[in-house]
């Protein structure tokens, strides 16, 4: 077993994921902890508890990304303005204290709607995506990170030129948690992408995007009409929303031959499936894998390693 | 005091509102009870308890509208197909049993998106709107009933020609109940419609409707950028969503010189304000008042009174 050299951490709103890494960025051990939303004022304490099982390796430097760097986080790490070179991000990480972890910065830009936009955590997944797939380092590329707040990121030769946030996942989750449109939640898993999802995609693709708030009622009205089996409104809703996001995203940016999707595999598969209806090819990189790869690459950058 | 002649009831998902009426439909007394969602399997019992204080008036006939007539309600009242004559609705009400209340039918149509659409409860508010405002009985009229599921209803000489449901209120409420876009809920009240609401309206009016899921992120990103004071994202969100609904509604139907809004006064005021930005005049009728007026008119129709 290689020697542990540093700890890589992705501290999101809901989860903390920590990886013990060797000098090459290989993961030797992993652990999880509570998300940033549950750790206000006690980040140092939660971090110390979480890495306690690794104390035999001695004190190790650590690099974190995600909401631990937000205003309500451990310490506020700045948002770097785009265009931002992904190789330069690590040097803008900030230290929690002399011994504690460093935290990666977020990114800000003026998005295609002309408004200040923000991301935090995804910048490190982007660093990882470039480390995992050299093709992304050259030329104009489009990376989509689907999730609660999807990010559509335009890259130019390894620089983040611009990005845009689309709240597809938050609307999807909110309509599950509240109201009558979705009576049963169907998990987003690796099961077949059958009728209801593609039906939702087709409805959104062939209907004016101005109709979205009317289209969403079809989750209920098609059930009342007996056209949508109970339990499938969730999958139909997913198709409607993902397609609406994609139609907007493709209209907002120059679309390259292939889009890279960085995220959970089952969700990325839905995006790839909907993108194919628009004639756009997409391939996926696992989001957690990209985060660790990004932290490892950033750690090498910090220490002047190639 | 005039003699009590019948009981008018609006049994929605969340509330039961009962009114003791005289022969002219004037309200002599009112009471409230639990909504249909909380009464499964015990509608008769809840109804009997609710009207018990009025027992001195002897057994009275009753007419109800709303979710008490849904599949999960007291007894299922059919959806009448449009075009539907509002004067004819009462004759399609059905009896819960020989002594019990009658329940008004709902309406169904093929909406402008080509899909089966449904309403229940609003048909009675429409009957009431025509009773309260004779101008609505002639020619082509547009009545908008804003709410959890807004209804845009086209009338031709007192007939419901077509309608469309828009789930603006449900999305608004869901984004309050879940997620990070809205951190503080601001009540929809009669306070001044200040900057944040009109700012939301303007953003939605001047941005492609395809951008809605991206625009919604501005509730958060404008707060991060210091452009939206904390606590105002709720009002900004309301402006975004109501404007999106209105832009869609006005594009879907022929717009008459004036639109009638039937609903809660504070919400109707927001719609009127946003409609004015589109150069459309609107006036309001109180939704609860319209429901009682509709039940009274329907009761007179049932009994062959003018």
Element pattern of chain A in H and E: EEEHEEEEEEEHEEEHHHHHEHEH
Rg from alpha-carbon coordinates of chain A: 20 Å
Low-confidence spans of chain A: pLDDT under 50, at least 5 residues?
none
Q: Beta-strand percentage of chain A?
A: 25-35%
Q: Let me know the average pLDDT of chain A.
A: 94
What is the makeup of the main sheet of chain A?
A: 6 strands, mixed
Please give the share of residues in helix of chain A.
25-40%
Strand order of the largest sheet of chain A: 3-2-1-4-8-7
Walk me through what this model shows.
- The structure is a homodimer of 306-residue chains.
- Chain A has 306 residues and is of the alpha/beta class.
- Helices cover 33% and strands 26% of the residues of chain A.
- Chain A contains 9 helices and 15 strands.
- In chain A, the strands form 3 sheets. A 6-stranded mixed β-sheet of chain A has the order 3-2-1-4-8-7, sandwiched between helices. In chain A, strands 6-13-12-11-14-15 form a 6-stranded mixed β-sheet, with helices on both faces.
- In chain A, helix 2 (122-132) crosses helix 9, helix 3 packs antiparallel against helix 7 and helix 7 crosses helix 8 (265-277).
- Chain A is globular, with a radius of gyration of 20 Å.
- The relative contact order of chain A is 0.15.
- The model of chain A has no long low-confidence stretch (mean pLDDT 94).
- At the A-B interface, strand 10, strand 13, helix 3, helix 5 and helix 6 of A face strand 10, strand 13, helix 3, helix 5 and helix 6 of B.
Features:
six-stranded mixed β-sheet; 306 residues
Summarize the structure.
Two copies of one chain form a homodimer. Chain A has 306 residues and is of the alpha/beta class.
